[in-house]
Amino acid sequence: MLTAFLACLMLSFGLGATSAWAEGEALQGTLTNNGAPVAGVKIKASTQDGAPAGEDTSDEQGKWSIPVTGPGTYKVELDIASLPAGVGVTNNRPTLTPTVAEGQARNVLFPLGSAGGTTGDGQPGTKDSGGPSSFDRFADLLYSGIHFSLIIALAALGISLIFGTTGLTNFAHGEMVTLGGLLTFLFNVTIGMPLVLAGVISVVIGAALGYFQDRAFWGWLRKRRTNLVTTMIISIGLSLLVRYVYLYFFGGESRNYADYNAQAGVQYGPFLIAPKNLICDVIALVALAGVSFALVGTRLGKATRAVADNPALAAASGINVDRIIRLVWTIGGALAALSGVILGTFQGVGFGMGFQILLLIFAAVTLGGFGTAWGALLGSLVIGLFIQISTLWIPTELKSVGALAVLIVILLFRPQGILGRRARIG
Known about the structure:
By secondary structure, the chain is an alpha+beta fold. It has twelve helices and 14 strands.
């Protein structure tokens, strides 16, 4: 039933879906000045080690694209000498260091405008051709870490609530994250809805699918008293099945939403933040705060915590355990879909986007303490910040390995997680 529903939705991707400018990993962008495309500007890319990765010249639409050999952090430099007279980079940063994820065509934005503004050294009318300073890069990575932490936290909170009430370690949760991104792409790009409306509808569908998952499938397995190891293995199989359904209908390349694809960053102190990312952060914080408050300050929240602590005792107290679990699945589905929507604006949409962060989601939940909502949030913050900031010292390809190493070290000293409770075994 679940697979048939997803297949019907994925069939729609064949109707008018647009592909990215380049398949596989790439750096790309559009140069405009006051809304007009800027052609003939040279862009060069190199690896962290300084090896050339490619170059391109903006075309008549201002577009440029440089395919790269794989995921990693690259240095992208705009040749300011090739800019038209009187045009400069308004944020005085003609060199950027974006990170490309697996299968991602990463958009790189150089905001152009009058060359008569002030530069990084405070001198008017000159152009600063140097790359970003160490402090600028640290500030960028710090914000990226917080932004990524919120994305992980949305999914981690849902998976933690499901585990707390049912004991299920759900490996198919990553595909719910992917579903949020794919549905938003479907509504925004294929159908032509505004991105905000597309995102809202995707979250609603994610919530509904979470509800029907438990009603038609997981709840049925619970009534048959299927043990937790078996249900975990079933979730792994379901994850593989759904992921390849996505791949079959959506394809293997990364794509981008039609709206807010490239935005100029706004300087907030040391942080250069695109408005879309700031809005996504606010939405994520509101969602996380709302669910956290509901768990603490409402009768449904108290009932949920009672079911998590002792389902049998909660049932004996008059609580409808199945209804509470179904509510948790609904909330978990909505949070996972919202995580996918925001992740799609951050790095593009792909068939494996949820699976790629699933291990990090589990790491965040484990680090914070399985089954604890606050632990999931704290664990996500630690994992997200470490992943991004660690690229100052280690290659980008190893950033997830470093985060998992930190997880192992912390669990050696506190096996129950940061906020988890000790449990007697035997």
